[in-house]
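We modelled the chain as a single entity of 221 amino acids. Its sequence is:
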Amino acid sequence: MNVDVLVYDGFDELDGIGPYEVFDYALTYAGEEDKDAVNGAAGDVDAAGRVRYVTLDVRETVTASHGTRVGVDGTLPGPDSDDAPDLLVVPGGGWNGRDEEASAWAEAQRGDVPDALAAHHAAGTRIASVCTGSMLLAEAGVTDGRRAVTHAAAIDELRASGAQVVDARVVDDGDLLTAGGVTSGIDLALYIVETTFGEAIAERVATVIEYEPRHAVASPE
């Protein structure tokens, strides 16, 4: 599973870094299981995947909402690229503050991020948002008529955009997954890990980060 976390100036640190850490551990553990399965045979074992931070423009770092500078691994590939992600994670940040320079709100107004999300969605990329990252998906039209959730302070806006708001910490609507505020991104990532790599790896990740998943996931209808 190749995962790209799309970051931008003003994204909330936990929205992006929490899921990144979960996926990084999960891919490491899944890779170890692959090696065990071939009993240490010579030659390369297919990697379980990769997780990385990407931006739309070429740059070395972004500055998150609380001032953390995060290194960028590359740019988001086009949806038809051989390197396109299997899962695209969209963090939120600063939506309700309406920061016009560095925030999810600013990215929604510029339009480039919503355009990229719409293109990936149309091409079949699975997309997961954390917190007000779902508002960027709403701006892209991705959540129209779809079951979704966002940060409590933006619920009314999400509903007004045409989404079917679900009262849940994590909502699975097939190729679209959304999570509520901030720390719910960890629950989202652990759920994806469990459904992709199995319960044992998800539990191993939760144990190592000392996190107890909260609340049931609203699964597809």
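As a brief sanity check on the tokenised model: Confidence is low (pLDDT under 50) at residues 40-45. The chain has one domain: 2-208.
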